[in-house]
């Protein structure tokens, strides 16, 4: 991306894509900046508490599709949504035709969202199954079913390559987990330096995108394009979301 790690739309290497309003005073109520900041933080906390499982899983699906590596499994949201879907299905036979159709559409929507989320994760698991099963951090992000699937996927892959050609090679050339030899690694890994768009969910304040650059103020609803590795921790802490 033109040899720049974090690109924006204002000339700086990581630039806000929204026009910022004056920070010192609010035009509508003339409240001091520090009071408005406290109010915004309270509103953010309230909105986080009021988020339903459908919103949480929808955001998780968007993040999962945009992130190069696999993210934390949203098991609680999926479990709650599937329980709700089962409850709605039990209600359908006793409802009038119009209400039954509406309930059926809601159930189908929930099931589609859950399937899309799980399929996205399975696709990413198959891409880097060996890396995810070898790394304790990534193993902790997988559900038990995903971990079993990844382990089985790696085992089947190993059997295939051994029967195909590895068993015909000298013993010292049969290892499929070698790494660090002349900078080469046989285990594929996601590119954590790939570019992503992120939207700020909660005021971050001044953030250092690169050591050689000046800090940039990250305000709620601002949008940035940057390297994934730079905002990875912010994503894990819920400060930003990918778009």
Distance between the termini: 18 Å
Structural classification: mainly alpha
Biggest sheet character: 3 strands, antiparallel
Spatial sequence of strands, sheet with the most strands: 6-3-7
Q: What level of helicity do the residues show?
A: 40-55%
Give the tally of β-strands. 7
Instruction: Figure out the total of helices.
Output: 8
Strand content: 5-15%
Radius of gyration, taken over Cα atoms and rounded to an integer in Å: 23 Å
Subunit arrangement of the protein? single chain
- Point out poorly predicted stretches: 1-31
Q: What is the string of SSEs from the N terminus onward?
A: HHHHHHHEEEEEEHE
Shape: flat
| pLDDT averaged over residues | 81
Q: What does this entry look like structurally?
A:
This protein is mainly alpha-helical and 243 residues long. The chain contains eight helices and seven strands. The strands form three sheets. Strands 6-3-7 form a three-stranded antiparallel beta sheet. It has a two-stranded antiparallel sheet with strand order 1-2. It has a two-stranded antiparallel ribbon with strand order 4-5. α2 (53-66) runs parallel beside α4. It is flat, with a radius of gyration of 23 Å. The two termini are 18 Å apart. The model is unreliable at 1-31 (pLDDT under 50).
